[in-house]
């Protein structure tokens, strides 16, 4: 009888430990996604200058490099279902939309020099369906 009670207690303790561990891992994942999204979400529907645009592009490129996101034949990052981030920027003075790769290829320092006093606004954001991480930002020049 004692042996049966001990076995049941050990099984119950193992189940509680497993549930606690799973919940802890889930909360850790949620916190990491929230921390990642916070880097970009402060720019959503807000006006900011060209220097901040350079920061956004650098964050997106650093994320893609860190997560080994592949590039296509034109040098643009391929969208995946988990970690990729894309940024497109519409410039009113040229009436064209540029990808972050195009702007980065023209050197971020040139972007900062030419657009540091120009205002931009992030008007569209998309999230990965699988993990709710930011996957796409559309930014428009507003002045």
Helix content range? 40-55%
Structural class: alpha+beta
Radius of gyration: 22 Å
How far the N terminus sits from the C terminus, by CA atoms, comes to 80 Å
What would you call the shape? elongated
DSSP, total strands: 5
Keywords:
143 residues; alpha+beta; 5-stranded mixed sheet; 4 helices; 50% helix; 21% strand; elongated
Structure, explained:
By secondary structure, this protein is an alpha+beta fold. It has a domain of 99 residues. The protein contains four helices and five strands. It has a five-stranded mixed sheet. Strand 4 and strand 5 form a beta hairpin. It is elongated, with a radius of gyration of 22 Å. It starts with a helix and ends with a strand. The relative contact order is 0.17. The model has no long low-confidence stretch (mean pLDDT 90).
List the topology elements.
Layout: H1 2-41, E1 47-49, H2 50-66, E2 86-91, E3 96-99, H3 100-105, H4 108-115, E4 119-127, E5 134-141
Parallel strand pairs: 2-5
Antiparallel strand pairs: 1-4, 2-3, 4-5
Helix pairs in contact: 2-4
Describe the structure in brief.
The chain has 143 residues and is an alpha+beta fold. It contains four helices and five strands; from the N terminus they run H-E-H-E-E-H-H-E-E.
């Amino acid at each position: 009888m004692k042996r049966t009670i001990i076995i049941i207690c050990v099984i119950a303790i193992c189940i509680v430990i497993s549930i606690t561990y799973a919940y802890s891992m889930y909360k850790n994942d949620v916190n990491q996604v929230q921390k990642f999204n916070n880097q970009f979400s402060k720019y959503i529907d807000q006006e900011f200058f060209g220097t901040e645009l350079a920061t956004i592009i650098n964050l997106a490129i650093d994320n893609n490099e860190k997560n080994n996101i592949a590039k296509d034949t034109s040098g643009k990052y391929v969208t995946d279902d988990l970690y990729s981030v894309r940024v497109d920027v519409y410039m009113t003075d040229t009436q064209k939309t540029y990808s972050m790769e195009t702007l980065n290829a023209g050197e971020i320092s040139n972007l900062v020099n030419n657009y540091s006093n120009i205002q931009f606004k992030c008007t569209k954001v998309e999230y990965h369906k699988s993990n709710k991480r930011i996957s796409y930002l559309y930014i428009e020049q507003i002045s």
